[in-house]
Amino acid sequence: MRKSKFRRFMDTLFSRKIVMVSFVVVLVFLVMAVLAPLLAPYDPYEQDLMHTLQGISSEHLFGTDKYGRDILSRIIYGSRISLIVGVGSVLIAFVIGSTIGMIIGYFGGWLDTVVMRITDMMFAIPQVVLALALAAVLGNGLWNLTFLMSVGAIPGYIRMLRGQVMAIKEQDFITAGRVIGASPGRLMFFHMLPNGFSPILVFMTQSVGGTILGEAGLSFLGLGIDPPTATWGGLINEGRQYLLTNPVYSIAPGIFIVLLVMALNILGDGIRDAMDPRLRGQH
Q: Which of the chain's ends, N or C, has fewer CB atoms near its CB within 10 Å?
Protein backbone atom coordinates (compact mmCIF):
# COMPACT_ATOMS: atom_id res chain seq x y z
CA MET A 1 0.00 0.00 0.00
CA ARG A 2 1.43 3.37 -1.05
CA LYS A 3 2.07 5.89 1.67
CA SER A 4 0.31 9.23 1.52
CA LYS A 5 2.35 12.35 0.81
CA PHE A 6 1.91 13.49 4.40
CA ARG A 7 3.12 10.13 5.75
CA ARG A 8 6.17 10.21 3.49
CA PHE A 9 6.87 13.79 4.59
CA MET A 10 6.66 12.87 8.29
CA ASP A 11 8.82 9.77 7.83
CA THR A 12 11.50 11.83 6.09
CA LEU A 13 11.23 14.69 8.58
CA PHE A 14 11.80 12.44 11.58
CA SER A 15 14.31 10.10 9.94
CA ARG A 16 17.07 11.93 11.83
CA LYS A 17 16.96 11.74 15.62
CA ILE A 18 18.25 15.28 16.05
CA VAL A 19 15.24 16.63 14.13
CA MET A 20 12.86 14.60 16.27
CA VAL A 21 14.54 15.87 19.44
CA SER A 22 14.32 19.44 18.13
CA PHE A 23 10.62 19.00 17.40
CA VAL A 24 10.05 17.78 20.96
CA VAL A 25 12.01 20.73 22.37
CA VAL A 26 9.92 23.21 20.37
CA LEU A 27 6.74 21.44 21.46
CA VAL A 28 7.82 21.62 25.11
CA PHE A 29 8.42 25.37 24.81
CA LEU A 30 5.00 25.84 23.19
CA VAL A 31 3.31 23.91 25.99
CA MET A 32 5.30 25.86 28.57
CA ALA A 33 4.15 29.17 27.07
CA VAL A 34 0.49 28.16 26.81
CA LEU A 35 0.32 26.58 30.29
CA ALA A 36 2.57 29.10 32.04
CA PRO A 37 0.04 29.89 34.81
CA LEU A 38 -0.21 26.17 35.63
CA LEU A 39 3.49 25.33 35.34
CA ALA A 40 5.04 28.34 37.10
CA PRO A 41 5.62 27.48 40.77
CA TYR A 42 5.22 31.13 41.87
CA ASP A 43 3.69 34.38 40.71
CA PRO A 44 6.46 35.83 38.49
CA TYR A 45 5.65 39.38 39.62
CA GLU A 46 5.30 38.81 43.38
CA GLN A 47 8.19 40.46 45.21
CA ASP A 48 9.76 39.06 48.36
CA LEU A 49 12.39 41.56 49.48
CA MET A 50 13.36 39.34 52.42
CA HIS A 51 14.69 36.64 50.07
CA THR A 52 16.49 38.47 47.24
CA LEU A 53 19.26 36.96 45.12
CA GLN A 54 18.95 33.50 46.62
CA GLY A 55 20.85 30.68 44.96
CA ILE A 56 19.55 27.33 43.75
CA SER A 57 17.39 25.60 46.34
CA SER A 58 14.51 23.14 46.63
CA GLU A 59 12.08 26.07 46.93
CA HIS A 60 13.54 28.06 44.03
CA LEU A 61 15.19 25.79 41.45
CA PHE A 62 16.92 28.73 39.71
CA GLY A 63 17.04 31.02 42.72
CA THR A 64 15.45 34.46 43.04
CA ASP A 65 16.13 37.81 41.40
CA LYS A 66 17.01 41.16 42.97
CA TYR A 67 13.40 41.67 44.02
CA GLY A 68 12.97 38.17 45.44
CA ARG A 69 10.91 36.94 42.49
CA ASP A 70 11.28 33.31 41.42
CA ILE A 71 13.58 33.16 38.37
CA LEU A 72 12.14 29.89 37.03
CA SER A 73 8.63 31.36 37.05
CA ARG A 74 9.84 34.44 35.21
CA ILE A 75 11.62 32.28 32.63
CA ILE A 76 8.43 30.27 32.05
CA TYR A 77 6.39 33.43 31.56
CA GLY A 78 9.17 34.91 29.44
CA SER A 79 8.68 32.09 26.93
CA ARG A 80 5.29 33.61 26.13
CA ILE A 81 6.82 36.94 25.14
CA SER A 82 9.53 35.29 23.02
CA LEU A 83 7.10 33.07 21.12
CA ILE A 84 4.48 35.80 20.65
CA VAL A 85 7.08 38.18 19.24
CA GLY A 86 8.82 35.46 17.22
CA VAL A 87 5.74 33.87 15.65
CA GLY A 88 3.74 37.11 15.42
CA SER A 89 6.43 39.10 13.65
CA VAL A 90 7.11 36.26 11.19
CA LEU A 91 3.40 36.00 10.33
CA ILE A 92 3.13 39.77 9.81
CA ALA A 93 6.25 39.78 7.63
CA PHE A 94 4.92 36.80 5.65
CA VAL A 95 1.52 38.38 4.95
CA ILE A 96 2.93 41.77 3.92
CA GLY A 97 6.06 40.51 2.16
CA SER A 98 4.38 37.67 0.27
CA THR A 99 1.58 39.93 -0.97
CA ILE A 100 4.01 42.56 -2.26
CA GLY A 101 6.34 39.91 -3.70
CA MET A 102 3.57 38.17 -5.61
CA ILE A 103 2.23 41.45 -7.02
CA ILE A 104 5.56 42.69 -8.33
CA GLY A 105 6.54 39.22 -9.55
CA TYR A 106 3.30 38.83 -11.47
CA PHE A 107 3.00 42.29 -13.01
CA GLY A 108 6.69 43.32 -13.20
CA GLY A 109 7.42 46.66 -14.85
CA TRP A 110 8.39 49.87 -13.08
CA LEU A 111 6.70 48.80 -9.84
CA ASP A 112 8.96 45.77 -9.64
CA THR A 113 12.04 47.95 -10.19
CA VAL A 114 11.08 50.49 -7.52
CA VAL A 115 10.13 47.90 -4.89
CA MET A 116 13.28 45.84 -5.46
CA ARG A 117 15.51 48.89 -5.10
CA ILE A 118 13.82 49.72 -1.79
CA THR A 119 14.22 46.10 -0.74
CA ASP A 120 17.93 46.19 -1.58
CA MET A 121 18.34 49.28 0.59
CA MET A 122 16.56 47.57 3.49
CA PHE A 123 18.82 44.53 3.13
CA ALA A 124 21.78 46.83 3.70
CA ILE A 125 20.49 47.65 7.20
CA PRO A 126 20.80 44.86 9.80
CA GLN A 127 17.42 43.82 11.21
CA VAL A 128 18.37 44.59 14.81
CA VAL A 129 19.70 48.05 13.88
CA LEU A 130 16.48 48.81 12.01
CA ALA A 131 14.50 47.57 15.02
CA LEU A 132 16.53 49.85 17.31
CA ALA A 133 15.71 52.85 15.15
CA LEU A 134 12.02 51.99 14.98
CA ALA A 135 11.88 51.31 18.73
CA ALA A 136 13.10 54.84 19.38
CA VAL A 137 10.18 56.14 17.29
CA LEU A 138 7.37 53.73 18.20
CA GLY A 139 8.35 53.10 21.81
CA ASN A 140 8.30 49.91 23.84
CA GLY A 141 5.46 47.44 24.19
CA LEU A 142 4.64 43.91 23.10
CA TRP A 143 2.73 44.73 19.92
CA ASN A 144 5.06 47.56 18.91
CA LEU A 145 8.01 45.20 19.31
CA THR A 146 6.25 42.48 17.33
CA PHE A 147 5.59 44.89 14.47
CA LEU A 148 9.03 46.49 14.37
CA MET A 149 10.74 43.07 14.39
CA SER A 150 8.62 42.14 11.36
CA VAL A 151 9.70 45.18 9.35
CA GLY A 152 13.26 43.95 8.92
CA ALA A 153 12.05 40.52 7.77
CA ILE A 154 9.65 41.77 5.08
CA PRO A 155 12.32 42.21 2.32
CA GLY A 156 13.26 38.53 2.57
CA TYR A 157 9.69 37.44 1.86
CA ILE A 158 9.33 39.97 -0.95
CA ARG A 159 12.40 38.65 -2.73
CA MET A 160 11.52 35.01 -2.17
CA LEU A 161 7.88 35.26 -3.34
CA ARG A 162 8.88 37.41 -6.30
CA GLY A 163 11.29 34.71 -7.45
CA GLN A 164 8.72 31.95 -6.91
CA VAL A 165 6.03 33.80 -8.88
CA MET A 166 8.37 34.63 -11.75
CA ALA A 167 9.28 30.94 -12.03
CA ILE A 168 5.67 29.74 -11.86
CA LYS A 169 3.69 32.34 -13.81
CA GLU A 170 4.70 31.04 -17.26
CA GLN A 171 3.81 27.42 -16.51
CA ASP A 172 0.96 25.76 -18.40
CA PHE A 173 -1.56 25.62 -15.54
CA ILE A 174 -1.22 29.41 -14.97
CA THR A 175 -1.61 30.06 -18.69
CA ALA A 176 -4.73 27.87 -18.69
CA GLY A 177 -6.08 29.87 -15.77
CA ARG A 178 -5.62 33.12 -17.67
CA VAL A 179 -7.36 31.65 -20.72
CA ILE A 180 -10.48 30.68 -18.74
CA GLY A 181 -10.60 34.17 -17.20
CA ALA A 182 -9.20 33.64 -13.70
CA SER A 183 -8.32 36.92 -12.02
CA PRO A 184 -4.69 37.74 -11.13
CA GLY A 185 -5.61 37.64 -7.44
CA ARG A 186 -7.01 34.13 -7.73
CA LEU A 187 -4.01 32.92 -9.71
CA MET A 188 -1.57 34.42 -7.21
CA PHE A 189 -3.19 33.37 -3.92
CA PHE A 190 -4.82 30.07 -4.89
CA HIS A 191 -2.32 28.65 -7.39
CA MET A 192 1.09 30.36 -7.26
CA LEU A 193 1.37 30.73 -3.48
CA PRO A 194 0.55 27.06 -2.67
CA ASN A 195 2.98 25.85 -5.35
CA GLY A 196 5.79 28.02 -4.01
CA PHE A 197 5.08 27.60 -0.31
CA SER A 198 7.65 24.90 0.53
CA PRO A 199 10.72 27.19 0.72
CA ILE A 200 8.59 29.83 2.45
CA LEU A 201 7.69 27.41 5.26
CA VAL A 202 11.36 26.58 5.81
CA PHE A 203 12.27 30.27 5.83
CA MET A 204 9.48 31.05 8.30
CA THR A 205 10.54 28.29 10.71
CA GLN A 206 14.13 29.49 10.80
CA SER A 207 13.12 33.16 10.95
CA VAL A 208 11.29 32.60 14.24
CA GLY A 209 14.59 31.70 15.92
CA GLY A 210 16.34 34.79 14.57
CA THR A 211 13.47 37.00 15.69
CA ILE A 212 13.54 35.53 19.20
CA LEU A 213 17.25 36.36 19.35
CA GLY A 214 16.50 39.89 18.14
CA GLU A 215 13.80 40.37 20.78
CA ALA A 216 16.14 39.12 23.49
CA GLY A 217 18.81 41.54 22.28
CA LEU A 218 16.45 44.50 22.37
CA SER A 219 15.19 43.54 25.83
CA PHE A 220 18.80 43.19 26.99
CA LEU A 221 19.46 46.74 25.80
CA GLY A 222 16.35 48.02 27.54
CA LEU A 223 14.47 48.72 24.28
CA GLY A 224 12.18 45.71 24.38
CA ILE A 225 9.25 45.05 26.70
CA ASP A 226 9.02 47.39 29.67
CA PRO A 227 9.65 45.96 33.17
CA PRO A 228 8.30 44.27 35.21
CA THR A 229 7.12 42.05 32.32
CA ALA A 230 9.24 38.89 32.31
CA THR A 231 11.43 38.56 29.21
CA TRP A 232 14.47 36.39 28.64
CA GLY A 233 16.61 39.27 27.43
CA GLY A 234 15.54 41.40 30.37
CA LEU A 235 16.50 38.63 32.80
CA ILE A 236 19.95 38.33 31.24
CA ASN A 237 20.40 42.09 31.51
CA GLU A 238 19.36 42.11 35.18
CA GLY A 239 21.50 39.09 36.03
CA ARG A 240 24.74 40.29 34.40
CA GLN A 241 25.43 42.45 37.46
CA TYR A 242 25.49 39.32 39.64
CA LEU A 243 27.44 36.89 37.45
CA LEU A 244 30.05 36.30 40.14
CA THR A 245 27.65 35.93 43.06
CA ASN A 246 24.55 34.42 41.39
CA PRO A 247 25.44 33.25 37.84
CA VAL A 248 22.22 31.23 37.35
CA TYR A 249 20.27 34.51 37.32
CA SER A 250 21.70 35.38 33.90
CA ILE A 251 22.87 32.02 32.57
CA ALA A 252 19.54 30.13 32.91
CA PRO A 253 17.50 32.36 30.55
CA GLY A 254 20.44 32.37 28.14
CA ILE A 255 20.38 28.56 28.01
CA PHE A 256 16.64 28.61 27.29
CA ILE A 257 17.21 31.02 24.38
CA VAL A 258 19.97 28.84 22.93
CA LEU A 259 17.88 25.67 23.21
CA LEU A 260 14.83 27.16 21.52
CA VAL A 261 16.72 28.90 18.71
CA MET A 262 18.84 25.83 17.96
CA ALA A 263 15.77 23.58 17.97
CA LEU A 264 13.92 25.89 15.56
CA ASN A 265 16.89 26.06 13.18
CA ILE A 266 17.40 22.29 13.17
CA LEU A 267 13.65 21.74 12.68
CA GLY A 268 13.75 24.17 9.76
CA ASP A 269 16.58 22.18 8.20
CA GLY A 270 14.57 19.00 8.66
CA ILE A 271 11.51 20.50 6.98
CA ARG A 272 13.70 21.66 4.08
CA ASP A 273 15.13 18.18 3.62
CA ALA A 274 11.68 16.57 3.79
CA MET A 275 10.25 18.95 1.20
CA ASP A 276 13.16 18.80 -1.24
CA PRO A 277 13.97 15.19 -2.30
CA ARG A 278 17.32 16.36 -3.75
CA LEU A 279 18.59 17.11 -0.22
CA ARG A 280 17.66 13.77 1.34
CA GLY A 281 20.47 11.52 2.40
CA GLN A 282 23.07 14.28 2.47
CA HIS A 283 23.42 14.27 6.28
A: N
CA–CA distance, 11 with 244 (Å, rounded to integer): 47
Distance CA 157, CA 120 (A): 13
Structural domain boundaries of the chain?
16-29+60-279
pLDDT (tens digit, 9 = 90+) per residue, 12-24? 777 788 989 999 9
Q: Is 64 helix (H, G, I), strand (E, B) or coil?
A: strand
- Residue 46 to residues 71, 93, 191, 230: CA-CA distances in angstroms? 11, 36, 52, 12
Spell out, as residue ranges, where the chain has pLDDT lower than 50: 1, 279, 281-283
CA distance 222 to 200: 32
Q: Does domain 16-29+60-279 fall into CATH 1.10.3720.10?
A: yes
Residue 175, burial from CB neighbour count under 10 angstroms (0-12, 13-18, 19+): exposed
